[in-house]
Amino acid sequence: MKAFEIMIKQVYKVKENGTVRSVIEKFIEHRISGLPVVNDRNEIVAYISDGDIMRYIGKHEDRIISFFFYITVIKGDDVEFEERVQTLLNMNVLELAKRKVITVSWNEEVENIAAMLGKKQIKKLPVERNGVLVGIISRGDVIRHSFNAIL
């Protein structure tokens, strides 16, 4: 069985110039926990998950943030939760998203996909064909299609 046979073709995604607010709205509306980030050619440039958002809004130790030549230290206890949430909403998605995205080819074998999902401990894999996003496969998709005929 191949990826294109089990992938979800209607993929929720966000454009690279989108805000984290748009990501969270899609998370809530569609009850999902991650989105591919794409450019205008529908090429995958990053991936953002609920874990990326949790890491940002959680309590932090002191952090040093550098904006080119301007450097500031943010004290973990000085930045309140509500402030972090408000700041987060207006951030560009690429400020939080992971740029090194693990993807699978549209014709990858399901056994290999299952191995990747297990080994990398990830929930979903974007599926691409010729560098363009064409679908997404989750752990649940692999389980359903692997065991549905048997049970």
Describe the structure.
The protein has helices at 3-6, 20-30, 50-57, 81-89, 110-120, 139-147, and strands spanning 14-15, 34-38, 44-49, 63-67, 70-74, 104-105, 124-129, 132-138. It has 151 residues and is of the alpha/beta class. It has one domain (3-147): CBS-domain, CATH 3.10.580.10. The chain has a 3-stranded mixed sheet. It has a 3-stranded mixed sheet with strand order 6-7-8. The protein starts with a helix and ends with a helix. Mean pLDDT is 86; it is low at 64-73.
In short:
With 151 residues, the protein is of the alpha/beta class.
Low-confidence stretches: 64-73
C-alpha termini separation:
18 Å
CATH architecture type: Roll
Biggest sheet overview: 3 strands, mixed
**CATH third-level topology:** CBS-domain
Q: Which band does the percent of strand residues land in?
A: 25-35%
Helix count equals: 6
The arrangement of helices and strands along the chain is HEHEEHEEHEHEEH
Q: How would you classify the helix and strand content by structural class?
A: alpha/beta
Shape: globular
Give the helix proportion (percent range): 25-40%
Arithmetic mean of pLDDT: 86
